[in-house]
Amino acid sequence: MSADDFRSFFNPKGIVIAGARRSMGFGSGLPPFLKEYGWGDRTFLVNPSGGKINGMKVYKKIADVPDPVDLAIVIVPANAVPATLEEIGARGIKHVIIESAGFAETDEKGIALQENIMTIAKRLGLRVIGPNCVGVINTNNKFASVELIEESLTPGPLSIIAQSGVFGNILLDFIYQHRIYVSKAITLGNRIDVNECDMLDYLHDDPTTKVIGMYLEGAADGRRLYETLRRVTKKKPVIILKSGRTQEGKQATASHTGSLSGEDEIYNGIFAQTGTLRAESLPHLIELVKAFTTQPLPKGNRLGIVTSSGSMGALATDIAVSNGLVIKPLSPSTVKQVRAISPEWMNVKNPLDLGPSGLFNKLTPMVINDPLVDMLLLIIAVPYSFIKAVKQTGVKLADVFGNPEAIRAQLPESKPFVITVVGNADFASEISGVAGDSIPVFTSPEAAARALAGLWKYSMTRLKS
User: Fold this and answer.
1) CATH code for the domain in which residue 52 is found
2) Do 381 and 324 fall into the same domain?
3) How many CB atoms are closer than 10 A to CB 406?
4) Is 444 within 8 Å of 316 (Cβ atoms)?
5) Predicted confidence (pLDDT) per residue in 384-408, tens digit
6) Is the Cβ–Cβ distance between 304 and 349 less than 8 Å?
7) Residues 6 or more apart from 98 whose CB is under 8 A from it?
8) Crossing angle for the helix pair 108-124 and 81-91, nearest 10 degrees?
9) Residue 280, domain member (yes or no)
10) Looking at the structure, do residues 120 and 15 belong to the same domain, yes or no?
């Protein structure tokens, strides 16, 4: 396998952990984690003291490690990294993840040390992720260069590229709670070699990646980023959360991964010209990812809204329209259907305010199947005291609000359908359970409307390409 083939990072034949440690600290949980998930017989620990760690043999030198081995994970102190890279190169290993910190993100001495290891890696023909990162995760085979909780290893359609190691790791710790599941994650750190464009290219061809989410502090090569995004977004959506908007934010990124974040207007231009979606915040990134990993791309921008609260429908309308969606009247045939079963006081229009009628399960399918509606937002705003009372009678939530998965199954493939639950967190969780993994549940009408607008914005770029 050539050094330019990145598969060894995600599906290695054998792994060396250089700097394996017995005491608690960074990287100490990795050997037992790999052993637990079936990688123990392919994981080789290296520490000059030898012996055993967690029942696994420890080799004194990298040269002693048996074949096959094609990936090295380095967690030695920063000043020991140059010599470790020399040992790795002599052993014939071409893929390296340097998790050690203490380089360009620190001071002038760290910058000089980083330049030294960059020179060594280039001379030896190594492909390097890092330093100052936690490496990679591949949920499809349960391989990771950092320990994770079991829930984070559920395979899914999203892949993450994060310049920050902790950002990527922490994101995996909680996004599964939003029913978002990951295929691969890559944390790049200081990027002495492998950068965001390399990984975008890799994920572009990865069959298990459908959506790419990124946290970016600064581009390694602005021109290449533009060209890469322009190519990748023609096939897969890319959603980027970019830090460094302010001067203070730029300074923070420089002290974090040694990155120069650049002018924000330039990045906005790159994203706009390549069909890349920019997330304005971490919550916004989560909102967009929830929609893109579960919903089809719409063929139009006509939004239908079914709500039990007129005020919530108005809030959703404001955000939807300001982000390029339109709220058109329902078709005459749908109006006729709705009026036939609705109380006289109901004003049949879009947004459709159900008020206290309780007709969610009957009217939602009518509106979403309207030929003049390209996507639907269902807003459930009901006092939790009423929900408790209904449940005590033995009535199921799906009987009251409809079965979202059944509605989704009957829809054309091109119609997105999302839900907002406003109110009690337990109620929102219960509706999420009813909706399943195929329909995202938001907790504000604005968030749902922004996510749907994101689907339409990307859909337009696909239609133009």
Assistant:
1) 3.40.50.720
2) yes
3) 11
4) no
5) 888 888 888 888 888 888 787 777 7
6) no
7) 74, 81, 117, 128, 129, 130, 131, 132, 133, 189, 192
8) 10
9) yes
10) yes
Whichever domain contains 228, its CATH number is 3.40.50.261
Q: Which band of pLDDT confidence, cut at 50, 70 and 90, is reported for residue 255?
A: very low
Residue identified by tokens 């599906």 is: 11
Cis previous bond, 131, omega within 30 = yes
For the chain, what is the domain count? 3
| Residue 312 and residue 358 in one domain | yes
Which one, of 31, 133, 19, lies nearest residue 85 by Cα? Answer: 19
Nearest Cα to 203, choosing from 163, 245, 231? 231
The pLDDT tens digits for 88-114 are 999 999 999 999 999 999 999 999 999
CA atoms of 413 and 398, how far apart (whole Å):
22
Length of the chain: 465
Q: What is the pLDDT of residue 248?
A: 59
Is the domain of 147 the same as that of 272? Answer: yes
Tokens 């609000």, located at residue: 401
Determine, yes or no, domain membership for 146: yes
Q: Which residue has the higher pLDDT, 26 or 13?
A: 13
Is residue 58 within 8 A of residue 52, CB to CB? The reply is yes
Half-sphere exposure of 202 (CA within 13 A, CB side): 21
Amino acid sitting at position 83: A
Q: Which of 292, 324, 343 is the last residue of a domain?
A: 292
Structural domain containing residue 110: 7-129
- Distance, in Å, from the CA atom of 177 to the CA atom of 171, rounded to the nearest integer, reads 11
pTM more than 0.70: yes
